[in-house]
Amino acid sequence: MKDKSEVEIVDLVLKLREKLVRARCQHLPVKEETLQRVSLYIDTVIGSLPEDLQTVLHHP
Asked: Residue 21 has what pLDDT?
């Protein structure tokens, strides 16, 4: 992630969130463990961003 710009990282977070929501809402055949891992990864990525972006991305 270090070689990515903040814009690319935010874009990744938003896309992953969208896919996560779609998988859960449409009951796609994805293991719950996988969904939890993706959610944890999203939180980890958000934690690597500056505080102002963290604040924006943590709001639902």
From this structure: 94
